[in-house]
Amino acid sequence: MMYHLAELNIAEAKAPLDSPLLQGFVERIDEINALAESHEGFIWRLKDDSGNAMSIRPFDNPDMLINVSVWDSVESLKVFTYQTMHKELIRDRKKWFHHLKKAYYVLWWIPQGHTPTLEEAKIRLEHLQQHGATETAFDFKTVFEAPK
To answer: How far is it, in rounded angstroms, from Cα 41 to Cα 91?
Structure first.
């Protein structure tokens, strides 16, 4: 069986999406999503009817934004995250988002063809927050290889 890499990342907005404070982030979301979709190794991302996931709120906190995507490898996601324009959003995140004390992203392996659910993603993040990196849920610092 072949595996792909799923990821969830969350961010707690400091203000509503239509506020001047978040304007710089909101203005770039379509550009960054298009970049992801055209990037080598990209497979799928969660979208609502507007083409992004900004209206999807699976957490009790209404200011918590999410992104879920699937990639062919850890390396392809890592290159997209840290070696493309996406790194500009990471650099500026303190302007737009609160600092989260717990893990704010998680990686895990899924069977090729599987689409991760929001519930599955939340469970993986909670696992990482409670137990640290394991084969079940990990991060870029502690990567586990796909199951054999």
So the answer is: 23
